[in-house]
Amino acid sequence: MEKSHKMSTNPVAAPTNPFTREGRExxxxxxxxxxxxxxxxxVAYPFFVMQALCFALFASAFNLLIGYVGLLSFGHAMFLGSxxxxxxxxxxxWGLEPELAILVGVACSAFLGLIAGALSIRSxxxxxxxxxxxxxxxxxxxxxxxxxxxxxxxxxxxxxxxxFGLIDLSKPTALYLFTAAIFLFGFLAVYRTVxxxxxxxxxxxxxxxxxxxxxxxxxxxxxxxxxxxxxxxxGLAGATKAIVVQNASLTDVGFAMSGEVVLMTLLGGMGTLxxxxxxxxxxxxxxxxxxxxxxxxxxxxxxVFVACVLLFRRGIVGEIGKALKWSI
Amino acid sequence: xxxxxxITTQQLYGQLLIGLINGSFYALLSxxxxxxxxxxxxxxxxxxxxxxxxxxxxxxxxxxxxxxxxWALIGSPLxxxxxxxxxxxxxxxxxxxxxxxxGLLLTFGLALVIQGLFQNFxxxxxxxxAIPPELSGGRNLGFMFLPNYRAWVIVFSAFVCFSxxxxxxxxxxxxxxRAATENPALVRAFGVNVPRMITLTYGFGVGLAAxxxxxxxxxxQVRPGMGADIIAVVFAVVVIGGMGSILGSIVTGFxxxxxxxxxxxxxxxxxxxxxxxxxxIVLLIKPxxxxxxVA
Lengths: 328, 295
What we know:
The complex is a heterodimer. By secondary structure, chain A is mainly α.
């Protein structure tokens, strides 16, 4: 099949070696991102930046599937939301320390990813997308009904607690550093995955699945592994968000959220490492600063979707990368 | 039995009826999706939003132009169908030859725009639409009371579904359509205007969605969110029935509506999830869906 027919328009392979050109380019971009994360809380409202970091991680996790395996999940909110609920419940009701509560949340979303993945990865393309829509809607209704989620109210006043029993997360600086550390861990996990032999096989599956099968790879297992990893990282984002904003609600598991993460990744650039981060920042800012316009935000988001699909399928980072001839 | 309360036959038949009604909407919507998918190879995410526009169309025709339900039944699908043809001509045709996922993304964006606009102007609450006087009232069947309007919705939907199936599978026009699905280049070589056929097919598919919207208007209120609520269920119906199967989508739509209704009687907590659970089970046993050929 011709490359132009495929979903991902940014087939970039950035090797891990820092002495190659691609490695240097990734490194420079990474340094810029580090500086921005360091400066951001002094320029913008820190609480907003932390939320943006959680969504950036969420979008990066989503991008692992669409950008590197070519699977469009339209139900990723189920992983964000379920981890968020479980983490909030673990921290508040079981009284777990934040790092343990987050781990429980991640384990839960990874397990959910295993089941949802096993059901969906046998299908491809739009079929896969529709199945993920339906599965996430099932999880949504489960969260509406289940007693521990407190339905419409959600889980409120989640305690932030002490990391390792030492660091007080109710202090803004500590919380910011904690969130930034988790984001960087997740981001580098995606980077490492994409640039490993495992990641190369994923890209081979994206480009030409029948050939990957004929080369002897058990494609279904690779896809499932990628799906579970993506679900776990999305869960990490959701669980961290529950600690940061101190609540878990139906918004995180709802269908609109699944659409938003698609928008973030599409706008930033599918199949680029920094695209989802940039896209998440733009979308979260848009919601934050346009909140007063009510439903117009939805209209604008929809229009951006249409514009992205019709006019620039590479996304912001993809276009920049193309202009600079950088692989970022 | 695992039930805490006794179930009267009245309740059972009542829920069966509601199930059949919902099933009619599922069947009409998934049929439209299947027709569009067969021809354009895209999943129309805007289907739910256009179903909502269809219901609003009936509302506008009544309150704006004073045209009653029967005019709306023809007018609203025609207007929405024309809107669909414009969407296909101006936007969707640009995506030919690209990964079908882009069609999904584009129509999802359109759904957001349409729904956001209606929410802006009409809020989240519903607006009532009266049952046409010719169909008000009902009849006593001995074992249950059957409102005339509901009987009409079921019979009419079944008729529309059957006619569509007949046209596609048994007529010459349908043969052209099926041939164009299989091999558009060859059909064009025979002098058939395939691009126009594609535009009309999309218009017809979303027209069916609008028709379902008009039928739903007197039963459920006219709300901007009505399409978003139903689209995930309709996707599940399409997955269960098998993608692109006309008959499959009709049968599955009606059956799942009934199953949902029965679940409301026997285990109400699961009534919202039962369709998705069935989908998961079907995927385990037959990944291509009950009537589908390939996944």
